[in-house]
Amino acid sequence: MCAEWRTPAYGEQDSGLGDETTRLKDELDPAVLDQVSIAGERFDRLLKLVEEVAMKGARS
Question: What's the pTM?
């Protein structure tokens, strides 16, 4: 029984070698990463606010 194995595209580039502007096929755009980071920070702040309100409600 022979199975054909496929390896992930890690390290494969769209074009060029060693060019800083060249992204790997599986690499996200830096702008997308920035937006995800900002969304994560906002979510953390919202979660802390909800926890504070819940704690105040539990004390009452």
Answer: 0.54
